[in-house]
Amino acid sequence: MRKNIIAGNWKMNLSLEQGYGLASEIKWMVSDEVSNKCDIILIPPFTHLSGLNSLLKDSGIKLGAQNCHHENSGAYTGEISAEILKSVGVSYVLIGHSERRTFQNETNALLANKINRALENEIQAIYCFGETLEQRDAGNAFEVNLSQIKEGLFHLDTSQIQKVILAYEPVWAIGTGKTASPQQAQEIHRFVRQALTEKYGEATAGSISILYGGSMNPSNASELLGCEDIDGGLIGGSSLESRAFLDIIKAID
Ligand code: PEP
User: Fold this and answer.
1) pLDDT at residue number 62
2) Of 43, 134, 139, 171, whose CB count within 10 A is highest?
3) What pTM did the predictor assign?
């Protein structure tokens, strides 16, 4: 059976001290309030990863990075590779977040390479995809999501795709306070699982976690997380506050 996952993407927020404070609170609250409900992943800025790896040791909470380069090493000033991330205890990496697709012009072809580097280094990729409001309004949401999935992921074989987590993040819902309705999210999740079934077969498609991301908060989490094909959440704003993040974890049934 596929896993339920709640991942907190801190983006470019929190000083080192603030990050340690938040992670410590979450660690304590998780051990006090929830047991084995789901996999929990914290995704802080790169600078926090090594220290948080020590702080979260033995807590069961896993560490993710927000990006990696498409090569393992070399003359790429300012970049971080999957190989380096592995050396500081990272288990997951976000690939294709819409903010990077937009501000860094990341293409599906580039993202496919990044996924290869992550998997080579035994880091699970969390592959983000989603349509803009214009694309949805033009009736192209299904087509856009399918091409992001096909071009980013369909070069992988069955054993590789099983190490990828998908995250449907409609661009219009990220950081806007405007959440997709459970029906809107579920229909895209179901459509994507169907595409995975056609490519990799039912058993494999049924074992892949597909997260929803886009203004998820404690008030809307349980309805979204209750949908059949939604296997967890990728949380931005609400992951910066320990109580809100814990309440989202607790909304998983
Ligand atoms: C995100 O950045 O992945 C995200 C879902 O952000 P927010 O929850 O703030 O919309």
Assistant:
1) 97
2) 43
3) 0.97
Give the pLDDT score at 37.
85
Catalytic residue positions, numbered = 97, 169
Q: What is the mean pLDDT of each run of 10 residues along the chain (253 residues)?
A: 95 98 97 90 98 96 98 98 98 98 97 98 98 97 98 98 98 94 98 98 98 97 97 98 97 89
**Residue closest by Cα to atom 3 of ligand 1:** 236
User: What pLDDT score was predicted for residue 35?
Assistant: 80
Tell which one of 92, 166, 215 to mutate to probe ligand 1, the residue whose CB is within 8 A of the most ligand atoms: 215
Give the pLDDT score at 253.
Answer: 78
Residue in 133, 217, 235 to alter for ligand 1 test, most ligand atoms within 8 A of Cβ: 235
Q: Could you give the domains of the chain?
A: 5-250 (3.20.20.70)
Q: Which residues line ligand 1 (CB under 6 A)?
A: 9, 169, 174-175, 213-216, 234-238
111 CA distance to ligand 1 middle (Å): 19
The 3-class SS string of the chain reads: CCCCEEEEECCCCCCHHHHHHHHHHHHHHHHHHCCCCCEEEEECCHHHHHHHHHHCCCCCCEEEECCCCCCCCCCCCCCCCHHHHHHCCCCEEEECCHHHHHHCCCCHHHHHHHHHHHHHCCCEEEEEECCCHHHHHCCCHHHHHHHHHHHHHCCCCHHHHCCEEEEECCHHHCCCCCCCCHHHHHHHHHHHHHHHHHHHCHHHHHCCCEEEECCCCCCCHHHHHCCCCCCEEEECHHHHCHHHHHHHHHCCC
